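Exercise 7.
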Amino acid sequence: MSPRLSHLSRLRSVAPEVFDPYAAADPAVVAASLADAVPEVYWTDPAQRPMRPDPRPVLHGTSHRADLVVIGGGFTGLWAALQALEDDPSATVVVLEAGRLGTGASGRNGGFVSASLTHGLAQGVALWPDELPTLERLGTDNIAGLEASLTGYGIDADFHRPGELTLSLTPNQDGAITEGYELHRAHGLAGEVLDADAARARVNSPLYRGGWFDPSVALVDPARLVWGLAAAVESLGGTIHEGSPATSLDVDGAGVRVTTTSGAIAARRVVVGTNAYPGVLKRLRPFILPVYDHVLMTEPLTAAHLAAIGWQGREGLTDAGNQFHYYRRTLDDRVLFGGFDANYHFRGRIDPALEQSASHDLLARHFFAIFPQLAGLRFTHRWAGVIDTTSRFTPFFGRTHGGRVAYAVGYTGLGVGSSRFGARVALDLLRGRDTERTRLAMVRRKPVPFPPEPIRYAAVRATRASLAAEDRTGQRNFWLRTLDRLGVGFDS
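Solution. The predicted structure, written as tokens, is:
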């Protein structure tokens, strides 16, 4: 749920050194910090967010008709509906959301907005070097369009662009800092490399050994972005139904009949943006690995807390390991802290019962190792969300039902920004348009599918263990080198 380079393409440090940066955290401090944390997503907690809109009506009846039906009321679906209405204000557009708006990945993430369409520059260099200039330009244009839409529709989603610091916490991560910075500079992108003193002057942690700064990354309140996009869709005449999960898609004459648990609607065309959830297109399942990512939110920091850690610039923060954290200050001075574990459950199980786990205890321990001066701070919320990971870490696209249905899924944690682009690709595909976007290899070719169970589960466990071992030792083992040669991997 945070912008970063994937482990697949990152160059490696050569000096093996085993070091646990989190060993110094006080267990009593960690336990006390979680004592009052509620199992709720902060962004959508009704006790904290009085601006949450009332539920939209459920779709009832079977006589409905629409030019476009969008399945999924997250970022992809709402951007698809909004852009379709901008293209043709006379179109009848209906969005079907299985639950409440923002209860899926779009309302559970860290709110990092990256321009990258390729899961980081290194991944783009590795997979599509010839198209990289085009991909970078399209990504930059996409974020400019996103920001313009927020302004044009008056969407107050706390959008701001403080940039992102990638930090080294261990000797084995030092090389990745230099390499990340130099790669961006080699492609004409802005950045700044920081030694330990410069990094700690921005954000004060005894673990920081250095870092590099990417000024392009923005931050947003993801739930307010969802709610604002929904209001914009409705302002243009679109209709949104919550509590209306689609159960089947069937060719119906020149269109598609979309059946839900309580009704049905005849559509000329359909966009599917269901993220990691299986949804109505079972053919997507081999390409998506649903991975749980866990998050904590603190109580608001006091003036003394802020003085102790600095962080005056509000930069988004991440670290350079394979297992990485992402963290940020909200505009009300809470700290969101997430990542590190990427938990896959057998057969891709998605279940609310999996959202509370020992991963939150691990995150709290890491938090106080990074910021020991914040001992006594409490976490108010603990939650998890499902990321739609693909083997190449980037979304994929396609059409079904004779070209009447298009999909865009697989954002692997970078969907806050790139979902707008994915929605535009899906609309282009529906209309049979030959555009610069639809000619991209990323759009024309799918990622390598994941193997079936139980091989899939065993492979994920082996990959996680290997990545953790590399973080400890700096050595990339035979399993990871094999995945590199195949051009596939596992990441969140």
